[in-house]
Every structure is written in C-alpha cells, then in structure tokens.
Hints:
Strand order of the largest sheet: 3-2-4-1-5-6-7
Distance between the termini: 63 Å
Radius of gyration: 25 Å
Low-confidence stretches: 1-9, 404-411
Oligomer: single chain
Order of helices and strands: HEHEHEHEHHEHHEHEHEHEEEEHEEEEE
Structural class: alpha/beta
Shape: elongated
Number of helices: 12
Amino acid sequence: MPLKAWRREKKKVPVTILTGFLGSGKTTLLNHILGSDSHGMRFAIIENEFGEVGVDEKVIRETADEQIIEVMNGCICCTVRGDLAVALKRLREKTSGFDGIIIETTGLADPAPVAQTFFVDEEVRLSYSLDGIITVVDAKHILERLREEKPEGVENESVEQLAFADRVLLNKCDLVDEKALEEVQKAIRGINANTEIIRTQYGQVDPKRLINIQSFSLENVLKMDPEFLNTDGEHQHDLSVSSVSVRFEGELNHQQLRMWLSDLMQEQAKDLFRYKGVLAVKGMPDKFIFQGVHMLFSGGFDERFRWAASEVRECRLVFIGRNLDKAALERGVMDCKVGPLRFKVGDEVEANCESWLRGRVVKLWDEGNPYRIRLQNGEECWGPVDTDEFVRQPSGRDWGAGNRKRGSPWWEQSGEDAKRRPWQARR
C-alpha cells in the first residue's frame, strides 16, 4: 500500500524508547508492562542487544503473548542505527492490530540518535510519533557510572540517557538507604532538572505513567542540543568495553556454573558490568534464568519458562564489561557443560558433607545435581558437581572435607531450605 494511502487510513503509531545502563532493570520493566492489563494496549517490540547472542528476547518472547518482536543485535545508536528505520518501515504494515511500539535499547546506547530517526526519516516521521523516552536507573550503581572518566571524544552513556529522559525510573531502591537515594536524585536533577523521577523496586510501576504520555518535545530537545537533528555526528563507544557471547545446544550443570560465576565476581566484579543467561539444566524441566551486575547475582528456575517437548535444549550466556578475556570466559562456561558421569546408580562413593561420609549413589541428575547419595547413616545428600572436590571413590581415610575457599553458592539457601544442612538433599 502506498505510504500516503496508508496514512489516510491510520493515525501515527506512538513509540516509547526504553533506555538505561546495563543491568538497570529495563527488561524486567518491559515484562511488567507487557504483563499488565491496566493499560489495555497491545505492543510491537523492538529488542536491541549489544551481544551477538540474544538472551532478553528469548525471555520476552515467552511472556509477551501474541506480540510482534523484532531483534537487533549490535548498538542501535551506531552500528545498526540504519536498521532501526528499516525495521520500523517493515513493521508499518503489521501494526494494524497494535496500539504502540516499545524499543528497548542496549544499555550502552545513546538515545539521541534513536530518537533522531523519528524526525529525519520522512517515512518514519509520517508513520510514527515519539511518545516518550523512559530511562531506568540502577540506584546502587548510577553514581559510579556518572562519575566515570571516559577517553577523549567518548560520551558517557549514562549521562546522555538521563539528559534525554522524559521519565526516570529510579529502580532497585531497596538496595540503598534514603540518604543515598537523595544523593542520586540530586545528581539526576543536575543533568535533567525537569524530568519526573519515579522510585521503584523490580520495575513495579503503573504502566500508564510511562505509556501514552506524549512527553517528548522536539522543541525542548533542540534548546538543550541544537545539533540534535544533525545526522553527521557519530556516537563513540569506550573501546575497552566489549561483549562475550556463548551459545550451544546441550545442557549445563548450573551448580558448577554458579560456583564459577562466584569466583569470577570476586576477581573481576568491578569490570563486569552485566552478565545474563538462559540455561538448559540437566534433569530440570524449567529454564534457569540468571542475571548479574558487578557483585549482585540473582538466578533460579522459573516455571513460567518450561522447555517444550519440541524445543531444542540450549544455553545462551552474555557477558558485558571492560577488558574481558574472551577465551577465559568461553572456557569457564564450557567447563560447566554436562558430560558423562564417573559414577552410576549403586556405586559406593564418599560425599563432601562438611566431612567425608560414605554412601551409595541412588539417583543421577536429581534436581539439577549429578548425584543423589544415600549415606550410611540413612540421610541423603547431593553431589552438586562431578569432581573429587564433592564426590570421590571410597578411600578409607578422612583428610577432612574439601570445602571451597572461595564462593560456594550451592550452599546458599533460604526459606524452608535454610533449615537443612547445606549438603542435605530434600526428601
């Protein structure tokens, strides 16, 4: 259909740009908006990820019922900037059943070139209206980002994301105290005095405060940045920041991965901006979804994301940070890939249970653990990793338990599990 004829039949589709630095909570907010029925709207989604392997889009696809999703890998403000206009034109014919479009940018994107697309491309300008730019802020880490010294000619993405924000979601407020929150708000006001700041935890906010707000003003932006419509400028990234992606068909031992991640955090937390993944774990029907920012890690099995019988079980992981060792990260992940086990059901073994205790293997791959072991005293334990550090052949001697000197996240328990000894299996 010719563009002019299409324009006579349809009004402009509103577009919301969702931005914010790595790990601020953008995807959590997006899933919250898509899962809410308060706004009564249906959205098409353009998901932009910095790494070569998409993780967020795999999660969004399973929570966004009947949504159109376009995925763009690479930075939307520079390397795939032209692809945005192409994607928007392609969506034009598909958006008849949708009330708006949400663009989630990578955490390293400058929102200005993204917003610019809606004014300098004629077809896009006639088809869409930029409704607002929503910036999500990590209350615990934002001040560090704003104070970071960048190489000459390189923009501070966090500053740019705040400068163009029509709404700022001050997220993860539960991680800092009131004094810190006030300091963060003061810093935000110093960059953007007129934006509305909304305090949140886990991205929980009424979507009506973010959607259909008609807040983006080209006039105000031009006052702040007279060169906004100049398409000749280039956004320069910090070249020391990169991404490492790992994707393979097969399954991981998530206990082993968590231990490796724990060690990685202790050694490289400052330079590890963001890490996330969707994993197939041996013996588990649900997907293991994890994410982290510096020293903060969260992850677990989510029954909303169950592996379908026809679905290829695979693992996707992405790390974004400064001066990353690609080979070491790939090797660390692949070391956690499931392979043949050393012991079989019925074999006698010794298990590391604060001290070495003898028992017999009664089940393989129990709740994601390679071994379930019935000890001679009648109790049962798990062997979380198939190494001599946790499960070994009977030796007849006890040199004491080989507890890990660094992170041991498999021993971290909460709720009812906290009442059990850390090595003890659930009955």
